[in-house]
Specification:
This protein is 53% helix and 10% strand. It contains 17 helices and twelve strands.
Length: 449
Amino acid sequence: MVQNILTATTPAGKTYRGHLRAMRQDMIGYLENLAQQGDFLRLPLGLGSAYFVNSPDLVQEILLKQARKFQKPFIVKYTAKEFFGENVFTSDGELWQVLRAVIQPAFHAQRLNAYASIMVDYTKAMISQWQPGQVIDIPKAMMNLTLGITTKALFGQDLRDDVAGQAIIRFIELFSQRLSRFPLPAWLPIPSNWEIKRQIAIIDRHLSPLIAERHQFFAEQDDVLSMLIQAQAADTTGLLTNQQIKNEVLNLFAAGYEVTAHTLAFTLYLISQHPEVEARLFDEIDQVLGQRALAVPDLEQMPYLEMVLKESMRLLPVTTVVSRKATEKVVLKGYTLPKNSLVFIAPWTLHRCPEYFPNPLGFDPERFHPDHKDKIPKFAYLPFSAGPRICTGNAFAMMQMRINLATICQDYRLTVTPEYQFEPFHSFNTRPKNGLPMTVNYRTLDLKG
Ligand code: HEM
């Protein structure tokens, strides 16, 4: 039984300032440094009690067994409330239960299958614009693709060329910046607040009439917005107001599109760096698809594609860190965390523990081979988090990314220039510091050449 735990140190010492400076300079380096000091540490962050947890059994306690004693922390709730109100990502208690119950069915297997043709068609449309030899900003291209798919699949409209689509992109950018910094009140008369409010007003001008129209015709539509409106009609709690529906719509974009796009970008980069993985993946895709368009049953015939994607999310998880606040005192490993303690769980460091992932820096999709994957403790691998707050969109994202990758790799091989240095950094999520420009080469021309 642990009664006392170590206080973590940084190169600049154990003080609050030392920790903040190390975090600000390089969050990923900071987390890796913590992981070397232990798997359960106290962090002197000047916010009451704060802890770093990096072991699967403790993660299981926090995210599953004692999950009801934890909430999303203040910074997430405050920033969201300030700008677009609570939603399924930020809320807790009764509101969260109502919202989760309404949203989850939108991501059930049969509904997902209905989105597959949108995912294939949009990916084909994107690559049909590519010219062999062209250098593409891959995160930007993937964000454009994902935004198109998300808006079409979930809300029945492709908003990319609409001013509302552009406003969503800008709003999410500004919102992520807010979450990675000190939370400033929305009433402060500063340019970034004006801009956020301006973007929200543009989105609102689009969403309000759309919601009003769906109130009349929801039975004829088969998308998430119509599901939310149907659920509103049956809601007895009074929590599912029109404003709440708007919050959810915005949140589903905020939660889904940027993380999916960066996961795709990281996977394309990792494939380009591992020729043996690339060759095996291309071979699987060629065997199963040849030149025809992908259909849902094909996904089951492509296990290596899924292994590659899972290994990419292990090595470069887009969600660097998940945080929670204790709503009451919690006992972990015999140690009592006081009420209001903050807890940080980092998929980034958990995924690099050599006990669970031998040769952790190696890119080895075999770890996720169906015959080996049971060796990985469930709470050591958290790309979508775990427990009751596991990502609602995980099956949607997994299906979309497999379709996007298979369709891209059917025709194209992507490469980076020899001078390119990949460097991940943390800004709310993991991103490539130097961008990720990749050259697209037509595969059949490559083979002929
Ligand atoms: C590769 C893509 C994705 C990754 C890596 C990812 C990751 C995550 C993670 C780690 C969480 C938990 C965060 C926490 O507890 O603090 C989460 C929650 C969530 N995600 Fe995702 N996500 C992805 C795609 C999506 C998509 C496509 C959607 C919806 C369209 C979505 C909707 C949500 C929602 C609504 C939550 C909040 C769930 C709750 O709190 O009950 N995500 N996601």
